[in-house]
Design a protein that fits this description.
25% of the residues lie in helices and 29% in strands. By secondary structure, the chain is an alpha+beta fold. Helix 3 links the parallel strand 7 and strand 8 (123-128).
Length: 167
Amino acid sequence: MATSAAPITLDEYISTSYSPDCEYIDGVVLERNVGKGKHAYTQGKIYLFLSGQVLSKKLIVLPEQRVRVSLSRVRIPDVCVVEELEEIVTKAPLLCVEILSPDDRWSRVIASVSDYQMMGVPCVWVIDPYQVKAWTFESENPPVEVKDGRLTAQSLGIEVQLSDVLP
């Protein structure tokens, strides 16, 4: 995973398009692992299931949306649920979902989860479609591995069957 050679400002980052999009961490543009087949499949299914579950709540489900988690950091969750549409999300999403790729490292994933939690995101799901595992991080509670096959977000009152979103 490559990074930019020299630090840039947040304004420079925001005004630049990257393909695929990159995260911004303390002045450094950080490439993300590009999803492969199982990642893309799981991301699409999560998006569809969440869209169906939050429609009546008038919430918005967004794929790969820039989320400004602090003054010097922008993360890009695979999927997030927000209350209102912003060009760059600045209000804490109600749920962020990270789907692991074969090249992802836990240190990067935990750093992202930590940033979401520091921002005030009440629930984060981490899904590994390659190992067929998932974890829920809710507020101040320790992470919980999903053992019963149900991804839940108590703050949203929603539930998704892991078997329905994995290839």
